[in-house]
Design brief:
Two copies of one chain form a homodimer.
Chain A (H helix, E strand, L loop, with lengths): L1 H25 L8 H11 L6 H12 L4 H22 L9 E2 L2 E2 L1 H4 L2 H20 L7 H15 L4 H10 L7 H26 L8 H24 L2 H4 L5 H5 L4 H5 L1 H17 L9 H12 L3
Antiparallel strand pairs in A: 1-2
Helix pairs in contact in A: 1-3, 1-4, 1-15, 2-6, 3-4, 3-9, 4-6, 4-9, 7-9, 8-9, 9-10, 10-14, 10-15, 14-15
Protein name (chains A, B): Polyprenyl synthetase family protein
Pfam family, one (chains A, B): polyprenyl_synt
Cofactor (chains A, B): Mg(2+)
Chain lengths: 299, 299
């Protein structure tokens, strides 16, 4: 794994730079009263985050020799959904966060109305990007990417998971319920990030079983690592407030498993995620390295 | 026009019933912690509104002999976007409205977090509906519908228009700026509602010029009529608070033109809208009747 790990950092940096460039081009500030809307979208979208989802799309697309620029466009659309969800989740009525990625949250830097509209705009922008010919000249591929992204982000996916997450503070959720919550809230979008690379490579659904298994286990490992960082992390490194779940009495993997079993579970999920890639050779080393990274990261 | 007007009411009622039925089927309340999310979506989506946009899609689709059920599915997706925009626009940070369609707004009947997520969920649901095979077996049609809907609802369309509308309270907007604002805020979605019928009928873009002109003039007439209702309407009939724009000192067609010129302008736009349909025979009578209706309605 040492060689694969060594190549992870430059791959992450390259994807992050590509995504920033895409957002910079897509979000040119117009000279009209929409200026604060675009500035808010840029504030949220540019220059932050680990870009784990875009890297997943690019790394999977590489398995199937998809043109890198097409993969980057699709990855940007998926990241639009992730960023919009952060902007809305941070709102006072939701998680009420002041800091995100080391900067004030959008409603703090601008105002609530602008934050709501910036989120809504990034949401629509995701589908604009995917719908344009430049992303994929094949309408079947465009249509499938849009459908999968809509499913992953809607009431059966991310938005539904966030609703369950809000209820987790009051409910007495057990491990299966928390697992389902997280598979919807973060797992669905991680799943579409992985699968998008295969869709771009015209891999039929039955050829994506291994990648789906990888994404499912990776998503849960990612969430457990997030829970651990929430209690053990450094706020300055994380760039956001920590320890919020425990303070709110929210049911999480950590509150249900405890630190030691949560850490064991995350490690087991990474091993399982990597095992799902057994039919791939060294071309999947980036996906393998990323699986190890998600539980070893410090933010 | 008498015969056409006579047939408008049953056509509107039939479409309204079809849309309610679609929402009822799409939004079955799950037996899990997402229950309030679905209840909030149902509260917002079912049993209210004039369903002008769905009727536009169905009436245009009829021109091109599109299967009615396909038109209804597409119309439901477009109405999802309209409903989500109402839910978000009503939020305290935006227009802060307590009543909508004669019922409490979603954040009043539920809470703000649920209203934000219900809007986000309806937003994603629109693309889920359009992305499914059942809506259109042709992936090119599916992909074009999704792209046009994303453009109409994003920062260059509805969301951008709403941002300009918020700025209209503080800005000193002139008539061209208010016209552009309204073309984005309400015109873009009305445009896609009309054009969707033609897209389903596989009419190429160059064959949609008349319909686009019709939609543009209709959209502006619709907005001027809305402005007039805001000062002259009956709150009980409208089902929402009125007189808000004038109270906020917002630049509108009405504040810029005055009541008499605004009424003349709306009538002129309807005449123009109908003139754009000159290449169609009696099969476009429903669209003609609808153009007259939008300036004559009382809510």
């Amino acid at each position: 794994m040492a060689a694969a790990k060594l190549s992870l950092k430059p791959a992450m940096e390259r994807v992050a730079a590509d995504i920033d460039r895409q957002f910079d081009l897509l979000l040119r500030v117009p000279d009209d009263p929409r200026r604060p809307l675009y500035e808010a979208m840029r504030h949220a979208a540019i220059g932050g985050g680990k870009r784990v989802r875009p890297l997943l799309t690019v790394a999977t697309a590489e398995l199937f020799n998809v043109d890198r620029q097409r993969a980057i466009r699709t990855a940007t659309a998926i990241e639009c959904i992730h960023v919009y969800s952060l902007v809305h989740d941070d709102l006072p009525a939701m998680d009420d966060d002041d800091m995100r990625r080391g900067k004030p949250t959008v409603h703090k830097a601008f105002d609530e109305a602008t934050a709501i509209l910036a989120g809504d705009s990034l949401h629509a922008l995701a589908f604009e990007i995917l719908g344009e010919d430049a992303t994929s000249p094949d309408p079947f591929v465009r249509s499938e990417l849009m459908l999968e992204l809509a499913r992953a982000s809607g009431p059966s996916g991310m938005a539904g998971g966030q609703m369950m997450d809000l209820a987790a503070e009051h409910g007495d959720f057990d491990l299966p319920t928390v697992t389902r919550l997280q598979q919807m809230k973060t797992g669905a979008l991680i799943g579409v990030a992985v699968e998008a690379g295969a869709i771009l490579g015209r891999v039929p659904p039955e050829g994506r079983t291994g990648l789906r298994g990888y994404a499912r286990d990776l998503g849960l490992a990612f969430q457990i690592a997030d829970d651990l960082l929430d209690v053990e992390g450094d706020e300055a490194v994380a760039g956001k407030a920590l320890n919020k779940d425990a303070a709110a009495g929210k049911a999480t993997f950590l509150s249900l498993l405890g630190v030691d079993r949560a850490r064991e579970q995350a490690a087991a999920l990474v091993t399982q995620a990597v095992a799902h890639l057994r039919s791939y050779g060294p071309e999947a080393d980036l996906l393998r390295a990323l699986a190890h990274y998600v539980v070893e990261r410090d933010r």
